[in-house]
Structures are given as C-alpha cells and as structure tokens.
Amino acid sequence: MDLPERIAAVRAGSGEPAAMVGEFRRTAVLLPLSGGRFMTGHEGGVRWIYAFTGERQLARFARARGAAPGEAWEYAAVLGARVLDVLVPELPGPAGVAVDVADEDGSMLLPPVRGVVPDEAAGDAAAAAEGAAAATGAAAATTTGAPGAAGAPAGAGPAVPRQRPSGWAR
Predict the structure, then answer these.
(1) Which of the four, 44, 47, 79, 91, has the lowest number of CB atoms within 10 Å?
(2) DSSP label at 107?
(3) Radius of gyration from C-alpha coordinates of the chain
(4) Would you give the DSSP letter of residue 3?
(5) Distance (Å, rounded) from C-alpha 101 to C-alpha 125?
(6) What pLDDT score does 62 carry?
(7) Strands 108-110, 95-99: parallel, antiparallel or unpaired by DSSP?
(8) Within 13 A of 140's CA, how many CA atoms are on the CB side?
(9) What is d(CA 148, CA 136) in angstroms, rounded to the nearest whole number?
(10) Which pairs count as long-range contacts for 17-25, CB under 8 Å and 24+ apart, including other chains?
(11) One pLDDT digit (tens) per residue for the chain, 170 residues
C-alpha cells in the first residue's frame, strides 16, 4: 500500500496510523520551495511543513494559492524520515507536517507528538497539536484545508539541504 492509500485507510477508520507514519517515513515527498526555503504554514500554535505525495497534489496546492495554470513551482524531493527527523526539529516551536493539504479527501496532518516526530521535537507540543486539530476541525490529525492558508508565511521553514533532488511542478 502506498502513502495515499494508507492516508485514505486512516481517514476511513480502517487503517493503522503507525503504519501510515511508517509509510510516510519511507516515501520521498515533494516540499515546495520559496526563496530557497521550504514552505510552511502556521495554524493552532503549530508550524506545518507542506509535503505532497506527487506533482498533481502539489499543482493543486499551487493553484489554490493563486498560481496560474502551467506556472512552475520549485520543489525538493525529500525522504519523509528526513522531514520528520531533521527538518521538523530545526523549526522553532512545535512543528509537524501537512500532507496533500489541497486534497479535501486525501490530506493528513502529522502532528508534533511522540511516535511521529522525535521526542525532543514533540516536547510539550501535545496541547498545541490538539489545538491545531480543533482549529482545523480535524479528528485523528486529518485536515481538509491548508493550515494557515490565508496569509501563511512562505519560506518560513528550514533552509533547503544542498544535496536535495529538485524539480518543477506545473
């Protein structure tokens, strides 16, 4: 089962959240870039790194953010484990990952809690994650909209590592 299928199963109540997180860790996800930094949003006291399971999902996000059809968006392909273990801890305050946020039926939040992010990044983030879930109307860390979509700071995330594979989504 690939990551979108695992997300769908968890959203339907028939999947295992731990297996979904494991699949995220093994999957190369696309992180949109702005000004040489990963794009993030802020919602419910949590900074969310935007991650996408494919170019179509990233293109939907770009269009939702006002990009013209065919406009190219730069992105980096990063292994999910690196996102959770390296990038999330680099951000100040509680941080998690918002996967496929422009897909109403296929999005998922990976909150800053133990078992998802490293213990040192989870810290006291449980209350912040609960607040984010409440703010997005989410249950079991799912979302139907981009965290902080209105006025989300672009490029507020960590700098892009030099060894990144990258491309352009249209």
Answers:
(1) 79
(2) -
(3) 14
(4) H
(5) 21
(6) 94
(7) antiparallel
(8) 15
(9) 10
(10) 17/140, 17/141, 18/115, 20/108, 21/110, 21/115, 21/116, 24/80, 24/84, 24/97, 24/99, 24/110, 25/79, 25/80, 25/81, 25/84
(11) 999 999 999 999 999 999 999 999 999 999 999 988 999 999 989 999 999 999 999 999 999 999 988 888 999 999 999 999 999 999 999 999 999 999 988 999 999 999 999 888 886 545 554 554 444 333 333 333 445 443 333 333 444 433 334 455 55
Supply 52's token pair: 């996408």
Question: What is the residue-wise DSSP string for 13-48?
Answer: T-S-HHHHHHHHHHSEEEEEEETTEE-EEEETTEEE
The burial class, CB within 10 Å (0-12 / 13-18 / 19+), for 95 is buried
Please report the pLDDT score of residue 153 as a whole number. Answer: 35
